[in-house]
Structures are given as C-alpha cells and as structure tokens.
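#data-curation
PF: Archiving a pair of folding outputs for the training set. Convention for this channel: one message per protein, sequence first, structure tokens after, nothing in between. First:
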Amino acid sequence: MKLLTCEKTGDGIAEVTVEVSPEEFESAVSSAFVKNRKRLSVPGFRKGKAPRKTIERVYGLTVFHSDAIESLLPDALRFAIDSSDLKVIGRPQVMDFDVNEESGGAEVSIKVSIYPEVTLGEYKGISAVKPSAQVLDSEIDYELGAIRNRNARIEIVDRPAKDADIVIIDFDGFIDGAPFEGGKATNYELVLGSGSFIPGFEKKILGMVVGEQRSIELTFPEDYDEKFAGKPVVFDVKLNEVKEKLLPELDDEFAVDVSEFDTLDEYKNSIREKLEKNKQEDVDAAFENALMDEIVDSMQADVPDIMIEEQMDSAVNGFTRQISSYGMDPASYLQMMDITPEMFRERMLERSERQVRITLALEKIAELEAFEVSEDEVEAEYSKAAEQNGMEIEKLRETVSKETIINEIKIRRAAEFVIDNAVVKAPDEEPTEKT
C-alpha cells in the first residue's frame, strides 16, 4: 500500500487516500470470491462450482469489489494511520473507492475523525476567586431548625388559627359566580404562611375557629395561569381543624434524642464540622471549575462531534444508572419532569462539550509537563478501582487498559498542578450572618 494524500479539513476531520497495489487488490478479490461463490447462482453450474470469471461475466466485473474493499479497509486504515501519524477516533467512513482497470490496483479515500491538536493559553499562575469556607452561626441555627422541624410534635388545638398552624379546610371557589376546575377541595391540609395558595388566601384564614365559615374575596395574580390571571375569585371556606407544630426545646436532652452526643454544644460542634467539610469541598470544586473555565476559554482545538457524542452517551448512561439505583425507571422519571429523551440529550450538550475540552486541556498539560506514572501508581489505581466497583483486579484489567489508567492518573495530576500553581483571589465581600 501507498499513502497518496492526507488532508486535515478542520472540525477534527481528516481525509486520507491510500493506494492498494494490484497484487493486494487481486488477493482481496480472490478471497471475496471464495467467500461468496456459494450464494451466487449461475445457469449450468451447481451453486459454488461456477468459475470466478463466469460469475463476473454474469454479475459484472465489480461483483466482488465491495467485499474486497471491506476486507482491505482495516489494513488500509492501519496503514493510513501509521503513515500519517494520525490519532484516529471512532469508525472511518469510506468516501470513495476507485479501481484502476489498467493497473488492476485501487484507491481508497477515507474520512476519519482525528484526536484534536490542542494549543493552550496560559495555565500556570492563572487566578480565580475562592470564596470563604467559613461556616456562620446562622447556618448552624438553620440546620438545627430543620432538625427540630423533623422532630416536632403535631397537636390538635382549640383556639383561633394563627401563622404556622396546620389547618384542615373545605373550600369552594367561584369566578363570576360559577365554580371552576381545581377550585374545590374537602379536608385540605394547609400550612398557614407557606404561600401554597394565591396571595391573601392564607392571611384571611388567620383568626378563624373550628366550624367557622368565611367568604374570601381575592384576585388571581397577573402572572397566574392564563385562564385565571387577573380575574376576581370568591372562596367559601370552612375550617374543620387546627393543628399546632410543637418544636422540641434546644437543650442537652434534644441533643441526646437526635444524635450520639451528650450535650447540645457537642452536637453543634459536630454540625459545624460537617458543614465546614461540605462547604470546603464546594469551595474547592468551584475554584477548580473557575480555573478550568479560564483554561478552556483560552485553548484552541477542533473537537470532532463524535467525542462530544461519546461524552453525552457516557453522561446519559451515568444518569440512567443513578436513577435506576434509586429504584426508579429513568424513562418514567423524565416523563414526570416533563422532559423528553431528546430534550435531555440537548441539555447535556454544552456540559459534555465542556467536559471534553477540559479533558483535552489536562492531557495537553500532562504532556507539556512530561508527567511520568510509575508501575506502583498504576497498581494502586487498579486496586482502588477494583475495590470501589466490587471487582477482582484481573477482571478489571480485562475491561480497563493500562493506558487508560495511566491517562486518568495524568489528568488528575494535571488538574492538581493547575490548582497548586494558581493564584487565589479573595471574594469582594466576606460572608455575613443572615437570619
């Protein structure tokens, strides 16, 4: 074989033309004849017994060319890659195939997606804002408030309804004196002050006592459902029951009841430690993402669509596994969220492209910094991955190549290199206590 042309057309695509010698093409045609002669019927011959030239005379000279070129493609592609130093991804696409009747040879033109050539901007000493990971007292109070709510007692009370009460009501709604769909309910449970109903509804129930009935006149907001937006409405409401949420006292006894700690101070400290750990992880992730954004924005690379498609496939498969692990059907979940599979993939497009570009950038950094990975590091990575996935190491080796492991280690090291060499910019404002 002989490489005739190799042209990069942009967008991660290259077109390669390879010349197949007459001897190579004749050998491929002979093999195709042996493979296919039994399925071709020729008058006067039993199946599989007709000579090649007779079959070609009946069916045409090109009858075996398609199978011949298909058998030649793997060798032609390997030759094209070896001869042109292309790093090919995905499946090649045959653009053209031409047989030279005089020489008996052939030319094959192939379109391939190639691994992008990456040109980076600056990646050492770049800067990004890193927010404070300080945990405020108000955040601990908020966490404690949520825990108190989860451990609250609900009691029926005999008094007028007040804010934060849970009320059980019947209501009938009327627009222009006529009932409307969705405007009627019996024994409906409502938390006053939750904002579950249109503005003004819950406030006008305050002060009602069990058995009392009220007519509440309101107007639907202008940004409400277009069928009701801006229309006056009357609700006839009857109060059936009033319940009060009784929060436990914040004391040592509460700490003992809800945790493994003996005092409230110890429990608060444990909450602070947990929040600090979570916030530090979030801050570190946000800082890394900001640095990656800066690197990706300044890099140049023609990323072929197939790389983004593969990343989207990986993201969709990850989503499917995650939802399935919760015992839910992914298709039903998307339907419940009013999202079609096509819409979901479309939403994953930008994120997938960014992830591909980040990976390409980190691979380039690892190359420029000449990172080396030892055998001990590879073995440690295999052991860690096998433990995480509940697999034997030898089974893992069969599915994950050593080259993949080395590449993952280099990418991780490149990200750490960027972070370690980055300049931290303080946020404009320090966090302040909030109610």
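PF: Second:
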Amino acid sequence: MRRGNMAKVLVRLLLAMLVASAAGGPSGAQEVTLRLQHFLPAVSGPHKDWLLPWADKVGKESGGRIKIEVYPSMQLGGRAPQLFDQVKDGVIDAAWTVAGYTPGRFRRLEVFELPWVSSTSAERTSVAMWSFYEMHAQEELKDVKVLALVTPGRGVIFTKEKAVKLPEDVKGLKLRVPSRVVNDIFQAVGASPQGIPPPAVPEALAKGVIDGALFPYDAATALKLDELTNRVSDFAGGSTIYSATMLVIMNKATYERLPADLRKAIDDNAGLPFSRTSGAKFDELNTTGRNAVLKRNTPIQMIDGAELAAWRKATEPAIASWISERTRAGDKGEELVNIARGLVAQAK
C-alpha cells in the first residue's frame, strides 16, 4: 500500500475511533452519569436502604449505561429548600426532597399532610398520593420529571422531657415541624412551631433551642432522636395526625435527552411501582426506628380513646382552614380532602 493511502486509512480509523468514543464506546451505546442529591446523612436508612439500592437497580437494568451517583447531606451545595429548583434549573440531575420545604408551592399535594388523611401505612398512602397526582396535581409538578411521590408514613412527636397525651400538653412547646400545614396544625393547639432543616435538628435539641421534633420513626437514629429525646407520642388507629409529602424528581431536559432505551430504564423504575416500593421501604424503616427508640427504654405514649378524640376535635379547625383556603383559590377544598381519603382507603 502506498504511503499516502496508508495515511488516509489511518486518519479514517482515528476518526471512527473518535466517533465511537463520543457515542459511548465501540458499540455506539450512550452512557450517562446522573447526580442525585438529598438532605439526610449517609448513615440514614433512606440513603443506605432505599436510594442506593434503587440507583443500583436502574444501573443494572440499563445494562450499566446509567450510573446514578447519590449525594447525601446536600454535598453538592445549597440548602434543602432549594432542592426542587436545583433540579428544575438543571443544577443537579435529580433529588429527593420534601414538598413542604417550599411552603405553598404544592398546594393540592398538601392534602396528604392534613390530620387523619394519610394512613399509618406509608405504602398505602404513597400509592394513593401517586393516583391523586395523576388526577389532580400534575400542573404543580410540570417543571420536572416526577419519578416517585412518597410519604414516610406515621408522624410522631419526639420530646425531650414533657410527655404529650392531650392537645394542651403541647402548649408553649417549641417543636420542629416539617411543613406549612403541620405548622398550622400545631400552632392551632398552642405549640410554638419551628421550621428547622433536618440536619440542624440534633444540635437544636442538644442546645435546648427546641423542646421536641415532629418526625416519622425512620429518622430516629439518623438524627439521633433516640438519644436526644426522652418521650415519644404516637397515635393509635389507621390514620396519622400529620405526614409529609416527599418527591423524587429529575430534570426534565436531562430525561428528554436520553435515548429511548435509557428513558425506558428510568420509566420502568419510576411512577406508581417506585412510589409503592418506596412507601413499603419506609414502613420497614419506621419499624427499625421504633425498635431503636424502644431499645433505649424510651416510653412511647400511644394516644387512643378519649385522648385521641380530643386530638381529632382540636385539629378540626386546621382541616377547615385548609379547605376554606383551597376553595377561595378556586378548588373544591372539601372534595379534594374526600378524594384523598378515598384513595387512601382504596389503596392496596
């Protein structure tokens, strides 16, 4: 072969190799790395036992072409209330966040934070929440790709010293709350709600800045609630006095840029199935957290009977206020509450 022809062949081979490399390898299959950020520490159950296994599952089902890097404790920067906008604006690819961290932004989804709407089963409520989103709340989340809607299930009251049995027992107590709706619930019964991000709660408890905190059991060990509080108040029955609406979301443009087969790998691990399995995982994590509390001999006050009836009566104004607010905004507030309760009751 002449030297000139050989040079041309080498140039063509080099160009082919560069094209193959740009496409993701000799096969031309694209590979992507997605960065997902959240607010809890790496030792937390949701990080270790929920998000990391999910990321691994997506990776395997994509043939190793999707790698999801999960960053706990806001390691990529910013504060927890900024997570939704970080995803929307493409600062990060995905996030797990709490809707209540941006008060008033997801007004219809707030219905699941109202007293006695959500089930004590995180799985059932997560299934109901996804159905509600598809029917009534897609507009609220139109700026992102929604991967899952999840609730941690039953909300309980952790306190440092005072045992809480009746609504009047929280009067004057500085309690950390997770959202605007839960703030209104406990303000109405005389507490002094405090909006503190989860990572700051252990220090706030240790320094006496707050008297207690409202969390599900799954946060007990991750935030040292089992060490820093001495009382827990839980509510009997099948529904919970409060809950949180949690979102797993992805940047829309990032998702839409993926080739069809990689979008399928995401879709197969999103939506109702991911919401259901996520809720089931939180039910497991709540059992683990409750056992950690009991292991430290912390008394758990189960509120039932006349005490539970007193709480139900005391929280009626908070429900009525939310219904009135939504109705003034053009929604049928009472109908939204009834729909949410019905979906929870029907969920399997």
